Amino acid sequence: MSSPGGGGNPPPSATATISKEVTGTFKVAMSTSFQPAEWDDTLFQSFPGLTTTLGTLQPQHIRLQGQSQGIPQGESGSSSTAWDFTILDAITQSVLGVGDHSPEFQIAKAPPFTYSSDDNINDFLDLTFQQFAGYAQNLVLYYNKGGFIANGQVYVSPSPYPITWWGIYNEPNINNDLTPQQYVEMYDALVPAMQAIDPSLKFVAMELADFSGQPQAWLPEFVSGEGGVTAQVDAMATHFYSTCNQKDTDAQLFSTIPDFVSDINYFYAETATNPALAQVPVWVTENNVNADYDAGNGMSACNPGQQYVVDQRGSSAFFAAWRPYVFSQLGKAGAQALYHWDFGADAQFGEVNATSAQLQLSYWVDYWLEHMFPSTGGASLLQCVNSDDAEIEVLPVLNNDGSVVVMVANHAINSPDDNNGPGAPRSVLVDFSALGTFSSGTLLAINANTSTANGPSVTSLTPVPQITVTFGGYGVVFVTLKP
């Protein structure tokens, strides 16, 4: 809960003083993701109302990552070249119909017949990537150019919306034994081939599994003026997870966020060395608390011999502190998109529970980040002096209409050993006095008490020069002031 300062309240544990000085721009598009495959293709068929739920998030360029039977050509364990878009389009057609009608289709993997085996650790048979490029061309024909004919059959997307944004491969640094130079060659093979079908396309490069040392190992060769990429790049992308082990503490997870920022800064430093890439934005096209998953028989994929346990921090009050902290820090570093992984899943990953269609707390956190900081307009980032940067994240912006939005997130831990703990109580005195007067205001809080069914309530707030925001534990508060 929050209240204006004064009136005998206990002294705040931190102060945040907002000034009129603009320190830069803030423009982060919140989005979400799908992995069309046989394990989730019935999501919209089972719960048709989820298209509305998805659309109200206002996601930008929703990410589609077809895997397994969601790859529309070939069949696992065979040399088949037959086409079948059934699994892929069970998700893709619904996604095309909502939001900005402009998803990012990540060509996550080539068809099975292009590999020596369809297992992820095996090599491409054709290292000129011409087979892969032909497959990619047919995808563009299918979605954008009235289809293609194969084996006497016409394959064409039923949607009136084309796909403009395309990502070239998923996490090449951990998939299919690719080297950095082979990824450059793959990218330079696919992009011109796809542009030959549709010159209007835009492309996302890299999409790394981002952990210690990976950008440093992969970016220099990609951006190099000699031997580096020559094809069009419209966005560079990477993936951030705070852990791959449910046993890691809350403190360990929060401590990873400065590393995320460091890698975003490294992306921009590297692209700045190549004039063709100097203005290319960086997107974070996968982000969540924990990347681990069940590898079969209930065992952890990341920790062999360890039982897999769903990390509840993906949808608990922890997330209401963690994601706003990530959003703010990455946006201040210049990242222009942040994608949740993924929309319909379990308590660890999903914004929506895939088996019941019930909303999870992560949905409301992401919803309000996009609605409070709409990416379509952008905003000016205001200077803030925060007395407790180690535990409190403050994000103040000035909008074009003169309104001010200040996000305050409490990620103070209650105990060093906490794992999905409650967070520690904190209060923050937010000083708006330098900004002048406002006619009206609102306050919205997301925390352990927030209804996942209905979301948080927006309450009216009388604008005063100073407001004390209080937290019972992990959570985030948004204050909006209007002239």
Q: Brief overview, please?
A:
With 483 residues, this protein is of the alpha/beta class.
Descriptive account of the structure:
It is a single chain. The protein is of the alpha/beta class. It has two domains: 2-23 and 380-482, Golgi alpha-mannosidase II (Immunoglobulin-like, Sandwich); 28-376, Glycosidases (TIM Barrel), CATH 3.20.20.80. It has ten helices and 23 strands. The strands form four sheets. A ten-stranded mixed beta sheet has the order 1-22-19-2-16-17-18-23-20-21, with helices on one face. The protein is globular.
Q: Provide the gyration radius in Å.
A: 23 Å
Number of domains: 2
Annotated CATH homologous superfamily of the largest domain: Glycosidases
Strand order of the largest sheet: 1-22-19-2-16-17-18-23-20-21
